[in-house]
Amino acid sequence: MAHRSQPLRVAVLGMGAIGTAVAAALASGEVQNARLAGVIVRRPDASGSPAFPIIGLDDALRSSDLVAECAGVPAVRVEGVRVIEAGVDLLVSSVGALVDEPFRKRMLAQGPGRCFTTSGAVGGLDVLSAASRGGGLSAAQLVTTKAPAAVVQEWMSGEQRRTLLEAAGPITAFSGNVKDAIDLFPRSLNIAAAIALATDLWDELVVTMVADPNAALTTHAVSASGTSGDYEFTIRNRPHPRNPATSGVVPAAVLNDIERLAR
């Protein structure tokens, strides 16, 4: 496959666990035909990193070809359209931001920059997307199981937190639609939006979050059915050591997509 004549200039939005790992890989030359343009923070003058150049969004839009978002759902909703309108491509890892239909259509169709999404911690989206063509899928379910500490959220009451943290076995913390899943667990259930985006089952997909004190790995059990057939697969990822709410494989998924776009 032919490569770009010039390296893809990538600005990383976010300096959390995912963003730092992605920026480090780009800075070290790990991604073929791509280089780090800088890490975007809200106030560059107030931030510092001995490892990466710190830039603002305005600088990134002038000096990069691609913004790799690793900052969370709110960051996509606040800055995503601005990136696209500036003619810079955007790679979204917080796919939950696209759960709002008007915003999703604006991001995916408006341009002149292009909006790409990463599969993150889930696989099998290619076959689900193919099976959904022509209305081939009519129902889907995602059951995500994590350690209780990764399920607990700030909005929960003290009693809800204690119930989850002190449970002796698996306990369901949530079951509902994709929109509510993203609103309540914006860092933990982006995978739900990724499945909905692949299948267009935004209303039909049932999302369940389970807290299990014995869960050493994060488990995503995906099932879908329709005229195309029945599909079931389970993924078990190790939690990220710096952020147990996300899977450790997510930075690698982002880097794989950057490398693909750099070709």
What is the helix content?
25-40%
CA-atom Rg in angstroms: 19 Å
Give the rounded overall mean pLDDT.
92
Taking pLDDT < 50 over at least 5 consecutive residues as the criterion, the unreliable ranges are none
Structural class: alpha/beta
Strand order of the largest sheet: 3-2-1-4-5-6
Shape: globular
Give the SSE string: EHEEHEHEHEHEHHEHHEEEH
Number of helices: 10
Strand content: 15-25%
| Main beta sheet strand tally, sense and closure | 6 strands, parallel
Span from first to last CA? 7 Å
At a glance:
The chain is an alpha/beta fold and 263 residues long. The protein has helices at 17-27, 57-63, 73-85, 101-109, 125-132, 148-151, 158-165, 178-184, 190-199, 250-262; strands spanning 8-13, 34-40, 54-55, 66-69, 89-92, 115-117, 139-146, 171-176, 205-211, 218-226, 229-237. The strands form two sheets. A six-stranded parallel β-sheet has the order 3-2-1-4-5-6, sandwiched between helices. It has a five-stranded mixed β-sheet with strand order 8-9-7-10-11.
Write the layout of secondary structure elements.
Layout: E1 8-13, H1 17-27, E2 34-40, E3 54-55, H2 57-63, E4 66-69, H3 73-85, E5 89-92, H4 101-109, E6 115-117, H5 125-132, E7 139-146, H6 148-151, H7 158-165, E8 171-176, H8 178-184, H9 190-199, E9 205-211, E10 218-226, E11 229-237, H10 250-262
Helix pairs in contact: 1-10, 5-9, 8-9
